[in-house]
Amino acid sequence: MTGEAATATSALVVELGGGSVLLEGHLDVMPVAGGVRPVRLPLDAWRFFPPAGELLGATVSTASGVRIRFDTDAQQVELRVRCTRLQYDELPGPRNTFVAEVNGIDLEPVDAPIDALRRITMLGDQATDLPRSESSAVVLDGLGTHEKSVTVWFPQGLIVDLLDVMAATPVRASAPSAAARWIHHGSSISHCVETPHPTGTWPVVAARRAGLDLVNLGFGGQCMLDPFVADAIAAQPADVISLKVGINIVGARSMDQRTFAPALHGFLDRVRTGHPDTPIVLASSIFWPGSEDTPGPPGVEFEEENVRCFAAGDPTDVAKGALTLAQSRLQIEHVVRVREAAGENIHYLDGLALYGPDDTDRFTLPDGLHPDAALYAEMGARWAELAFGARGLVPMSAISGRARGARSTPSFARANRADPDAAPTCPAPR
């Protein structure tokens, strides 16, 4: 779980043997054999992980929301990658796709190869890498022979090492995005590994509808109000920030009625050190049928190929201070109201507006907890409207005017550059 730290950045030009690409949606890169691995927390924060932190390290290394952009007139572009699939004891993790986007249109998804497995114990205290191949080719065809900008979305549930890019004509890194930047932090229901394609995660759906430059810090099972995550957000440029919290803390029973709201205040205070005025949307959890009023720890049942996730605690413990999901919504709303009354630019979004009891007839949760592709798409559309729509909590008109140069905290990689709008460069690996 160690790696040589690289400078955290909002956009990075990666020089490869066959061309250059602009890397986005990450917070750092880890040098690996023959290339670079985008990760979604700065590597210098990894020293603050818990001793049994292998699961956390693997989760933040997966590529949800990570993408590359390049300009080319090539009809076909080949990426050389090394993809690692996570495996939890004997339970294999998801296998998603690569999706190329040309002029706002998604092309046919390409299955991600599996070049290695990382087997992690359920406690997260040990990890073993099981290599299968050194690398694989991901061929993106049908791009069109005209000059264009191509965005390639990486599979959100896999660790992806970027090794090279090859085409018959030049491939050049696109210019950094001028869109307003949205940083989102949440749980597995923001990580969205259950939907087959990276463009189907609800944060990507919402970002594309609103025209935002997304950084998705959705960490499956790991949204615990960690101070190092708050510090990472504080250090990054952002025009709007959102946090969707509650489900992991309740499910793991990591906090109780006494500690949850103060911990949330502390997390927000750390974010505010870098973003004193940036609008924040604080969202609660979506509906968890059958587990709304039951505390953790988590329970999992396996029936053939079906899995059911539920809260397995004792409901009588609520009277002793155990936290439930329903209570967490009340506490989150309370935190927002307190801070809003003090003049803070913060807004509450009820998770039940994204998926609530009235939606259960139309949408199901296949494992009792996580949405499927159809519900993730619906959640993205609802979030775009409720948060960023004309009558939303933070309308685009309120954030689109926040120019990149006006951000409260420039990224470290750009701090000493002569041209603050130019993307830093990562040289070709040797």
Describe this structure in words.
- This protein has 430 residues and is an alpha+beta fold.
- It has two domains: 1-176 and 406-430, Galactose-binding domain-like (Jelly Rolls, Sandwich), CATH 2.60.120; 179-399, SGNH hydrolase (Rossmann fold).
- The protein is 20% helix and 29% strand.
- β1 (11-16) and β2 form a beta hairpin.
- α4 packs parallel to α6 (260-272) and α6 packs across α7 (325-341).
- Residues 27-103 form the SsfX3-like N-terminal domain.
- One of its GO terms (molecular function) is hydrolase activity.
- Residues 421-430 have a biased composition (Low complexity).
Summarize the structure.
The chain is of the alpha+beta class. It has helices at 54-61, 188-191, 202-210, 227-235, 247-252, 260-272, 325-341, 373-388, 396-399, and strands at residues 11-16, 19-24, 28-32, 35-39, 67-72, 77-88, 91-92, 97-102, 105-106, 110-111, 116-120, 127-131, 136-140, 148-153, 159-167, 172-173, 181-186, 213-218, 240-244, 280-283, 298-303, 306-311, 346-349, 425-426. It is globular and about 65 Å long.
